[in-house]
Amino acid sequence: FPVTIPSSGTRSLSSNVTLASTRTLTHSAGSLLLNTRTLSCGSFVGSSTTTRSITFGTGAKIVVTGSGGTIFNMTNTTGFTYSGTSRIEFSYSGSTGSRTITPGTGPTEATSLNFYITAGSDTVTITTGGVVNLLNFTGFSGTWTNNDLTLYGDLTVSSGMTVSAGTGISTFAATSGTQTITAAGKTLDFPVTFSGVGGTRRFAAATTIGTTRTLSLTGEIF
User: Fold this and answer.
1) Mean per-residue pLDDT, 194-211
2) Cα–Cα distance, 213 to 167 (Å, whole number)
3) Can you tell me the distance from the alpha carbon of 64 to that of 80, in angstroms, rounded to the nearest whole number?
4) Are 8 and 26 in contact, with CB atoms under 8 Å apart?
């Protein structure tokens, strides 16, 4: 059945919690303490204007198991914070339909989340203008749709996946540390911008950007 956290206060996991793959966890307010646990749900909705937070303890993660439609929705990130190392996994292993992930356009470098698409041969779309920290496709063999995207962490592409061409710009915006781009032999057939002043960009191996696309350097080092 669906679960909603609608009000202030603290909810703390004392064991792993699993919702069925067709059920939604809605986090509208208050503090969610994962401790060292795994919280699994079919879809996750965290879009709100109310103060809310997630605490990721050692090894803690949220696993989204659903397929088809919008399975992660944080369109409005006003009032959201988290602590610890975030890990949001998308584990659907089938080939049917299209999964949409909406991280919102409002996250900052401090509040953007880490996303791992660990399985599936379907289509995955990060909505236009989405802001994420790390984006990792290891284990995914489907198609990643091109849209405007801002990353504050690493991008890791899987050698078995399809990277769609398009005009959507991937902007690497970290202002500290190193962002690593692992293209796994795939052509990144979309524009790429390095814009984070103070951050460093690193290519893990030889990387090709499409012949009609632009690499823009408005930040510092790569």
Assistant:
1) 94
2) 8
3) 19
4) no
3-class DSSP string for 17-46: EECCCCCEEEECCEEEEEECCEEEECEEEC
- Residue 108 vs residues 13, 29, 43: alpha-carbon distances, Å: 27, 19, 23
Mean pLDDT of the chain: 96
Q: What is the per-residue pLDDT across 78-91, written as a single tens digit (0 to 9) for each?
A: 999 999 999 999 99
- pTM for the model stands at 0.97
Report the alpha-carbon distance of residue 102 to residue 83 in Å, rounded. 20
The CA distance from 49 to 130, in Å, is 18
DSSP string, 88-128: EEE-----SSEEEEE--S---TTT---EEE-S-SSEEEEPT
Q: How far is CA 59 from each of CA 87, 100, 189, 205, rounded to the nearest angstrom?
A: 9, 25, 35, 29
- Token reading at 214: 């632009």
The set of residues, in sequence order, having a beta carbon less than 8 Å from that of 206 and lying 6+ positions away, is: none
**47-105 pLDDT, tens digit each:** 999 999 999 999 999 999 999 999 999 999 999 999 999 999 999 999 999 999 999 99
